[in-house]
Design a protein that fits this description.
This protein is mainly α. 32% of the residues lie in helices and 8% in strands.
């Protein structure tokens, strides 16, 4: 119904727009290669990569033979946002607090 409403609202632009209802982004589940969570505490990670760690770190592996594009950057940022939203929601459900908002 929502897609139909949008199409009706924008029907005068029907020749210029394409509408995809329920567009599937990926055939397989989205998976982050590695998530490194820095536990609370004063431990300083002195290894090279660890020096830049923040609280939650999303790492995507790229083979040395792979080309890295701006789309790879956007994909990793999108994974980080997805992780933040979904982990917050699922974490709340695990702890009995209901769905998190905000």
């Amino acid at each position: 119904a929502f897609c139909e409403t949008i199409q009706t609202e924008l029907e005068e632009y029907g020749d210029a727009l394409e509408f995809r209802n329920g567009h599937v982004l990926n055939a397989e589940p989205l998976r982050i290669d590695v998530v490194v969570i820095k536990k609370q505490g004063g431990t300083a990670v002195k290894k090279n990569i660890g020096q830049i760690f923040r609280g939650i770190n999303v790492i995507e592996y790229k083979s040395p033979k792979d080309y890295i594009s701006v789309d790879d950057f956007y994909k990793t940022v999108a994974y980080a946002y997805q992780y933040k939203v979904l982990e917050r929601t699922e974490g709340s459900k695990r702890h009995g607090a209901g769905k998190a908002t905000g």
